[in-house]
Amino acid sequence: MSRDEVTRLEIGSDVQIAGARQAVRQAAVAAGFSLVEQTKIVTAASELARNTLVHGGGGHMELAVVENSGGHGIRLTFTDDGPGIPDVDVALSDGYSTGNGLGLGLGGARRLVQDFTIESRPGGGTTVTAVAWSRMAQRVPR
Amino acid sequence: MTAEAGAGRVSVLRMGDILIAAIQQELTDESALALQQDLTEMAAAGARGVVIEISGVEIVDSFLARVLSEIAAATNMLAGRTVVAGMRPSVAITLVEMGLGLRGLETARSLEDAMAVFRGQAGR
Ligand SMILES: Nc1ncnc2c1ncn2[C@@H]1O[C@H](COP(=O)(O)OP(=O)(O)OP(=O)(O)O)[C@@H](O)[C@H]1O
Ligand SMILES: [Mg+2]
C-alpha cells in the first residue's frame, strides 16, 4: 500500500468487523509496526468498528498508511450516519455506556493510539479518527 | 471425552468434570456468544471447571473481555471455576494499556498450567 492510499471497508455486520481487523492487521505489518503496536491498533479498530455498527447503525472505515521522516503510521476513520454523540466527554469516560457494554471501548481505543478525534453532533452522525505511529515515527516531532 | 461443534463454532471438550475450549481462530461476535452459551449450558450439566485456551487469539477487545467475564461469573455461580490460559503477552499489554484488565478472571500461562490448577483440587 503506497502512501495515503485509502482503503474503504463497509461496517455493517460482525463479519465485517472481523474483516476490518484483518485489513488493519495487514496494514500494520506492512507499515513496520511491532507485534505490540499491531495488537494495539487492531484492538482500537475493533472497538471503533463495533461502535460504528452497534451505536451508529453501520457505516464504513477508511484505512490509510501515512508517513513521516521517521517511519509509518496508520490512520483509521470510522464514519456513520447514526444518532451522534450528545456529549463526547461523557461518552469517553470509563464505564459510560448507553448499551449493555462495559463502556470502555471509546476511552480504551483513545489510550491505544497517538491521535484521536471525534466529530459528532446529535442527529448528525459520528466520525472518529485514530492515528497510530510506529515507534520510530513517534520520535519525530509533530 | 466428548466434543460439540457446529460450523464456525469453537468446540468444547469435556475431560471428566473439566470443560476445555481452545479458541484457535479470530472469533466473530456471534461465535463468541455461541461459545458463551455452549459453555454455560455444559457447565450447568455438571462441571467443576472451565478452561478457555486463547493462545490463538490475536486481540481481546471489550466485547470479548465481557464474554469471558460472563462465562466466569456463570461458572462461579454453578460452583465451578474458569481459567483463561495462554494469553499472548501482546494481548495482555494491550488490555492493561486500555484500562480493561480482566476483572475477576483467573489466568494461567498455558493449558497445562490451567489443568494443574484443577488436578491440585481433584476429588474435592
Ligand atoms: N458511533 C457512535 N454513534 C453514537 N454513539 C456512540 C458511538 N460510539 C460511541 N457512542 C456512545 O458512547 C458510549 C460509550 O462508548 P464505548 O465504546 O466506550 O462503550 P460501549 O460501546 O457502550 O461498551 P463497550 O465497552 O462494549 O465498548 C456508547 O454507549 C454510546 O452511547
Ligand atoms: Mg464500544
From TrEMBL, chain A:
Signal peptide: none annotated. Residues 36-136 form the Histidine kinase/HSP90-like ATPase domain. This is Anti-sigma regulatory factor. Pfam families: HATPase_c. The gene is rsbT. InterPro entries: HATPase_C_sf, HATPase_dom.
TrEMBL record, chain B:
Residues 8-118 form the STAS domain. CDD domains: STAS_RsbR_RsbS_like (cd07041). Gene3D superfamilies: STAS domain. It comes from the Bacteria. InterPro entries: Bact_StressResp_Reg, STAS_dom, STAS_dom_sf. This is Anti-anti-sigma factor. The lineage of its organism: Bacteria, Bacillati, Actinomycetota, Actinomycetes, Streptosporangiales.
